[in-house]
Write a structure and sequence with these properties.
The structure is a single chain. The chain is mainly β. It folds into two domains: 89 residues, predicted glycosyltransferase like domains (Thrombin, subunit H); 67 residues, Thrombin, subunit H. The chain has one helix and 13 strands, in the order βββββββαββββββ. Strands 2-3-4-7-6-5 form a six-stranded antiparallel beta barrel. This is Type IV pilus assembly PilZ. It comes from Methylobacterium oryzae CBMB20. One of its GO terms (molecular function) is cyclic-di-GMP binding.
Length: 187
């Protein structure tokens, strides 16, 4: 029997109690589960929490692993799974199925994880750095920031590019030199 797959590419942030946050991208969804691609090496049976753009946060268990791909089965009742299936199929139909561009800059997790974030209106608060690259940073924040908003991350001007559960992805107005991105870097 052939399994029908719905190709849908959505960025995801995944984690569990034993593994720090890592990024993945959905590849497709089927009755087998959600197929992801990630540079993290995972194990069958591992439980994950995944925050998937446009879908939300899901609890899942890894059912298959093949190289840098894994299939996760979502935990939940029939109504939850039916609603998720509808969401994924709708998103798959809405996408033009062009793959996302390959990231030009390597991401790292710096030792300095707390950084001051300042809005254009001067409001300042602390953010938690998940990871940083020469071109941007992923931050956990407790404040609403609109996509397109100009902010300061430490001393770097940036623009809010995307939202994820409890955080934002921002692009620096002027990227760091790639050699300046290392664990001991500061903002």
């Amino acid at each position: 029997m052939m399994v029908r797959r719905h190709v849908v590419m959505l960025p995801a942030l995944c984690w569990n109690q034993r593994r720090r946050d890592f990024y993945a991208v959905t590849a497709d969804v089927s009755t087998e589960g959600i197929r992801f691609r990630s540079s993290s090496l995972l194990a069958i049976g591992e439980d994950l929490t995944c925050s998937i753009r446009h879908v939300g946060t899901l609890e899942a268990r890894i059912a298959q692993v093949a190289g840098q791909e894994f299939v996760a089965c979502v935990r939940g009742g029939r109504a939850i799974l039916a609603d998720l299936a509808r969401q994924f199929v709708t998103l798959a139909r809405a996408q033009d199925l062009q793959p996302e561009p390959i990231r030009a800059h390597k991401r790292i997790v710096p030792k300095q994880k707390i950084v001051q974030v300042t809005t254009a209106s001067g409001q300042a608060f602390l953010g938690h750095v998940l990871n940083v690259s020469a071109s941007g940073v992923a931050l956990l924040v407790d404040h609403e920031l609109e996509i397109g908003a100009t902010i300061q991350v430490g001393h770097k001007a940036a623009t809010v590019m995307r939202h994820f559960a409890h955080g934002v992805g921002v692009a620096f107005t002027e990227p760091f030199e790639p050699a300046a991105v290392h664990e001991a870097m500061s903002f």
